[in-house]
Design goal:
about 90 residues; 2 strands; two-stranded antiparallel ribbon; mainly alpha; globular
Length: about 90
């Protein structure tokens, strides 16, 4: 699926990041602050799939579970199925 992003856009991290960027278009800096607070409420640095899914639901970005799965897999730097907030933030800021 990742090799055919035109057929499976929800499996391509770039497409998911673009969808989040659209959600942040009006106030990107404030969105990033709010997103960090919403997704990583305990300031853990690495966040579980469930917390990522909850956070983006609260942010009303309209991400599907598959898109959240794609994000977690793309930014899981410890192979423990958690999203690295640092790597995710850096990708969003680029």
């Amino acid at each position: 699926m990742q090799r055919k992003p035109e057929s499976f856009p929800q499996a391509d991290a770039r497409n998911v990041l673009a969808k989040i960027a659209k959600c942040a278009a009006n106030a990107p800096e404030q969105f990033m602050v709010d997103m960090l607070k919403c997704v990583d409420k305990n300031d853990e640095g690495c966040v579980s799939f469930e917390k990522v899914s909850q956070g983006f639901t609260e942010m009303k970005c309209g991400l599907t579970h598959h898109e959240v799965y794609t994000l977690v897999c793309a930014f899981d730097k410890n192979d423990n199925f958690t999203l690295s907030m640092e790597h995710f933030y850096n990708a969003m800021a680029a």
